[in-house]
Design a protein that fits this description.
This protein is α/β, with parallel strands linked by helices. It has one domain: Rossmann fold (3-Layer(aba) Sandwich), CATH 3.40.50.300. Helix content is 34%, strand content 29%. The chain has eight helices and eleven strands. The protein is globular, with a radius of gyration of 17 Å. The two termini are 29 Å apart.
């Protein structure tokens, strides 16, 4: 199986060399744990290696995202201009337009739009950040899970990028995802968190699942470094 380097400092060595090409991986965590930075870090590494990537920005507008990245030390505009990176946003009326439509219709619409953008860019990497707001309407949990399942399966079958999806974990719970199904569909799961040790908070990354990989389920400290991204402290294993 061909592997795709994540470019996350310290991580590739821990998960057997990278992600399996064409598979989907879940980045989970509570608010403010670094999910977006990790996902963008992954795409920027690909761009540096000549692998274009697309970023589906679900709950933030384009301008604030690009400005925030620049303040962090990542100027995305040159990559966008030369076709190595695409930032895609939902149309303002997307939710209203698909609210009453069947799950299959909504999924087909999203997947087809993403496929067209991926083909236009020649992208091999894709990020959906986050997946939860794509679940529209006041539906039952069962239907929400059906929606997420169909979306992730169709992305792998029809788009075939190596994809990261982020999912926010409700604060104070032991869940691994918003709807309790994403972690079963994903080939791998990384859980980001905060841990208090002696009154000091540290950032943690838990390698929860890596299918077909020798990666050992373990937790490590990591840092967020402006202009660089995520740096996993391999020598600081916590569990």
């Amino acid at each position: 199986m061909e592997l795709v380097e994540t470019g996350i400092e310290g991580l590739d060595a821990l998960i057997g060399g990278g992600f399996i090409r064409g598979r989907t991986y879940l980045i989970a965590g509570e608010t403010g744990t670094g999910k977006t930075i990790l996902a963008l870090n992954y795409l920027l590494h690909g761009a540096a290696k000549g692998e274009p990537g697309a970023y589906l920005l679900v709950d933030e507008d384009y301008e604030s995202f690009v400005e925030g990245a620049k303040a962090f030390g990542w100027d995305l505009q040159p990559l966008i201009k030369n076709g190595m990176l695409s930032i895609v946003t939902l149309l303002p009326d997307f939710v209203e337009r698909v609210r009453s439509k069947p799950v299959e219709t909504i999924v087909d619409s999203i997947v087809e739009s993403l496929r067209e953008e991926v083909e236009r860019l020649g992208a091999s990497r894709l990020v959906i950040d986050p997946i939860a707001p794509l679940v529209v309407g006041e539906e039952s949990l069962v239907k929400m899970r059906e929606y997420v399942r169909s979306l992730l399966i169709n992305i792998e079958r029809k788009i075939r990028t190596t994809t990261l999806v982020t999912s926010e974990i409700p604060t104070g719970t032991s869940q691994l995802s918003r709807f309790g199904v994403e972690e079963f569909l994903a080939t791998g799961v990384l859980v980001l968190g905060l841990r208090s040790v002696g009154g000091r908070y540290t950032r943690t990354i838990w390698i929860r699942k890596m299918r077909w990989s020798p990666a050992e389920p373990a937790m490590y400290e990591f840092e967020i470094v402006p202009g660089k991204g995520i740096s996993v402290k391999v020598g600081k294993r916590l569990a």
